[in-house]
Structures are given as structure tokens and as C-alpha cells.
């Protein structure tokens, strides 16, 4: 069945909201076994995986509630499109803001002088290329959340 450009819910909206809401948790689920296999041998990839794990584990305080709001919105899209769109947009906007802030923090820490760095920090000192690799998934998550918001609001309810 082909869906026209009529207002309201489309089947792929729910799938987009769901997958994008689960992306940060999926990154954590993939990076933990990868870090165990790599065993942090002092390589750049080890530093990237450790950073993803630290951000992922401590970030669960933010990502789980934000993902739940977006998932409740995805579940409500079919029956109550306007309410579901608002909830999904709220969750996606909060995730986009959180991950954009995280990306800004990574860039700011990399650009700051070493004497400003906390000597007791758990996170490794990242080289510019390692910081770029750390940024890639968070940038992708921010772009995906922004796309979901645009996708939900480009048509009228």
C-alpha cells in the first residue's frame, strides 16, 4: 500500500523515532564488548572506546529518560498523532541538545591547554584524530534527532 502526502501518521515515522531514540544505547552496547576485546592497550582506538564507554555509562542518567519520552511519543503516533509528535519531538530535541553539548565539550577540552585538565580525570587525553572519532557517533545522533524532528513537523497533523 502506497501512502500519500495526506496529513498525519506514516508507518516509517514510528520506526525512525524508535531507532533514533535507541542509538545512544546501541552505541554503548556495541562499545562495551569492543573495549573488552581491545583491552585498552594504549592505542587510539582504545582511548576512543574508553571515552564512549565513560560517556555512555554516565550518560545513561540523561539518555534513558530522553529515550523513554521519545519512545512513548513513537508509541502514541498512530493513535494520537499530535500528542505523539509532541512527545517524540520533545525527546528528540532533548537528545539533540544533550549530544550537541557533549560534542562541544569534547572539542572545548581538546582545544584547551593541558594545564586546565583535571589530573584525576578518568577519561584519556585525546589526540585530535581520536577526538574526531569520538565525535562522529554523537554528531550522527544529533543530526538523526534533528532529522526526526523535521520529518515529524514537515506535514500538518
Overall description:
The chain has 157 residues and is mostly helical. It is elongated, with a radius of gyration of 18 Å. The protein has helices spanning 11-38, 44-76, 81-111, 128-153. The chain has one domain (11-153). The protein starts with 10 loop residues before the first helix and ends with a helix. It contains 4 helices and no strands. Helix 2 runs parallel beside helix 4 (128-153) and helix 3 (81-111) runs antiparallel to helix 4 (128-153).
What is the fold's blueprint, element by element?
Blueprint: H1 11-38, H2 44-76, H3 81-111, H4 128-153
Helix pairs in contact: 1-2, 1-4, 2-3, 2-4, 3-4
Rounded to an integer, what's the Rg over CA atoms? 18 Å
SSE sequence, one letter per element: HHHH
Q: What average pLDDT do the residues reach?
A: 88
Strand content: under 5%
Overall body shape? elongated
Q: Helix count, per DSSP? A: 4
Weakly predicted, low-confidence segments = none
Backbone structural class: mainly alpha
* Share of helical residues: over 70%
| Number of discrete domains | 1
Based on DSSP secondary structure assignment, what is the total number of beta strands? 0
Q: Can you summarize the main beta sheet?
A: none
Alpha-carbon distance between the termini?
21 Å
